[in-house]
Amino acid sequence: MQNIEQLKSAALQAVENSTDIKSLDEVRVQFLGKNGEITSILKTLGKLAPEDRKTVAQSTNEAKNEVTDAIEAKKQAFELAQLEEKLATEKLDLTLPETPYKLGKRHPISACIEELETIFARLGFSVAAANEIENEHFNFTALNIPAEHPARQDHDTFYFNDFEEFNGEQQRKLLRTQTSNTQIHAMQAKGAPLRIIAPGRVYRCDSDLTHTPQFHQIEGLALDKDLTFSHLKGVLQVFLSQFFERDVKLRFRPSYFPFTEPGTEVDIECVFCEGKGCRVCKQTGFIEVLGAGMVHENVLKAGGINPEEYQGFAFGLGVERLTMLKYGINDLRMFFDSQNEFMQHFGKNL
Ligand code: DAH
To answer: What is the CATH number of domain 2-89?
Structure first.
């Protein structure tokens, strides 16, 4: 008994005498460590006579708790002293300039998509979306591009090895080559009348200075009981003028897209030379900006719409191309590098 009391006083004295955190920890190891003096007594409890065991256990545990508390209190005192010393010696220089940091900006492609969404919202179009992993039915067949159609070859498609069953047939999966797939999904989901635009990523196995394997398109589709080509002209005139912030002159050239009849390619008067002829427009005074047309009746049927009742127009444009024209960006790769200088200059404030 005496022994434990003495041990406890010795331990408390040692705690008291310790001069810093390190020597305090040595005290802890000496008395409470794995082979510490108090710990050793606790380990030998089993060997004691049963009548002694309880009292020894009790007083040893009390000693252990007391010493533990004393060590903790002393440790806190040391830490506080350290902190006070630091505060007393350290100086805070409030005149130092702040660490500069730059706020990021919205990528010009995202900004352009948002801007077009806003313009089309004012024209009564809502935003639709569809999967980028698609099957050949929605990317081609339903858009009046059957299996053997040469237009399938034009698209340099990324195919998967997977198939999925659709319309009772095995449809090969692919990365969509055009946002036109949203036309079918939107018709099937919402029916007519309909006014949607569908921005999104498309993929083609194509890569050079002016093509990247992944780029963005915006699809547009409007269906109603008596929509005509002049409505298409009106919508394109309004949206392109608002987007380029000037009264743009449009030129319609007859063209072929399997999902339209008639189909057209639309040019705007060159925004760089105002039609006089320059390198960008290859001296023609005009620049092609999108494809469009009246929706082919086979497409309406594939979307579950009765062509006798509803007609409409559709269009599709490349977002990168439109953004490059608007801001005079001449290298497609800059959109992917997203370097800080480029983003600070062409990006949109958040
Ligand atoms: N999907 C066409 C392409 O990727 C673009 C297009 C042309 C979409 C005419 C249309 C359209 O909706 O009517 O080249």
So the answer is: 1.20.58
Residue 102: the pLDDT is 78
Q: Are 231 and 311 in contact (CB under 8 A)?
A: no
Q: How many helices (H) and strands (E) does the chain have?
A: 13, 10
Distance (angstroms) between ligand 1 centre and the Cα of 190 equals 21
Residue 332 contacts residue 324 (beta carbons within 8 Å): yes
- Nearest alpha-carbon partner for 197 in 222, 224, 220: 220
Domain ranges of the chain: 2-89, 108-349
Give the mutation target among 149, 152, 223, 259 for probing the ligand 1 site: most ligand atoms within 8 A of CB: 259
CA 226, chain centre distance (Å): 40
Can you list the residues of the chain whose pLDDT is less than 50?
A: 1
Specify the pLDDT at position 49: 87
Q: How far apart are CA 33 and CA 194, in angstroms?
A: 79
The encoded tokens of residue 76 equal 């806190």
- Judge: domain 108-349, CATH 1.10.443.10: no
Is residue 127 a contact partner of residue 197, using CB atoms and an 8 Å limit? yes
Cβ atoms 314, 259 nearer than 8 A: yes
pLDDT recorded at residue 1:
46
The one-character DSSP state at 47 is G
Those residues whose C-beta lies under 8 Å from the C-beta of residue 232, and which sit 6 or more positions away, are: 222, 292, 293, 294, 313, 315
Angle between the N-to-C axes of helices 2-17 and 21-32, in degrees from 0 to 180, rounded to the nearest 10: 170
What's the sign of the alpha-carbon dihedral 330, 335, 338, 343? Answer: positive
Amino acid identity at 126? S
CA 277 – ligand 1 centroid, Å: 27
Q: What is the distance between the terminal CA atoms of the chain, rounded to a whole angstrom?
A: 75
Query: What is the structure's pLDDT at 61?
Result: 92
Length of the chain: 350
Nearest CA to ligand 1 atom 8: 316
Percent of the residues in the chain that have a pLDDT greater than 70, as a whole number: 99
Q: How many A from CA of 56 to the centre of ligand 1?
A: 91
